Amino acid sequence: MKNIINTNFLKELTYSLQDTPSTLNFLSRNHLNKALSAIFNKLESQYKISDTQIIGILLKVKFINGSIKSLSTYRKGSIKSKLQFLNLFKHMINIRSEYYSSEENKVISIIFSYNVYSPEYIISDIDNDLLFNENKAITSDSKDHINYKEDSVNRIKYMDPLKLFKLPLSYAGSYQFHDDFIKLNNNVSDSDPNYKYKLIIKQINSFEVEVLLTLQEYHSIVIYKFKDRLISIPKLDKTEILIERIIMSKKNIYI
Predict the structure, then answer these.
(1) Splitting the chain (255 residues) into consecutive groups of 10 residues, what average pLDDT does each group show?
(2) Cβ atoms within 10 A of the Cβ of 143, count?
(3) C-alpha to C-alpha distance for 119 and 106, rounded to whole angstroms
(4) Fewer Cβ atoms within 10 Å of its own Cβ: the N or the C terminal residue of the chain?
(5) Domains defined for the chain, CATH in brackets
């Protein structure tokens, strides 16, 4: 494994698959566990990390055409969190696999961008850590916001920022959003534990809701998170509403 410092204040460890380029599904089944074990062994030997010391990891892959793609958000945990990291990364890879299924999207390297926090760094500091706390806002300048799509079966209009889940254009605090979301994403349920992902909708106040998509087996592992807020402005007609939707692309999550 190679240890490289990058320009985003994160170090990088690269696990090479040059001799056996792999699809994302194959990588998830056969290489990810070995690659993650390699980085954990490296971190333990190089930094002498204690069981409670915090580390942050961002999963990326390099494709055979030379392009590099982030497949996860930046997540924090400890050496004891290896199983949670593994489950999180597997799910993120499997969700992405349908978008990167062609031959040119075979992977030649798994890249872990990481940071090792000082032993004094404690969990209460995470909410105030701004270094990696970057929110990706879906605004009028966003391609996904302007060029929405329509489901051919249910005729539901949606966006798919980050290419993970299909988000109906309706307000997330409405019953319509809940019903449309379940129809568009057949691997999600808010009540059935047999589905891969759990939908959680939290009411923040009368005008704002937060939506979480978590793993069924680990509700503490958040795969996807966004907020909808109703904007109060003069309406052009009686039915029009304006929504601000913020997708948390690199939100600090503690595993």
Answers:
(1) 47 90 92 93 86 89 92 85 89 82 85 90 50 37 56 84 86 91 93 92 91 88 88 54 75 48
(2) 10
(3) 38
(4) N
(5) 2-128 (3.30.1490.100), 134-254 (no CATH)
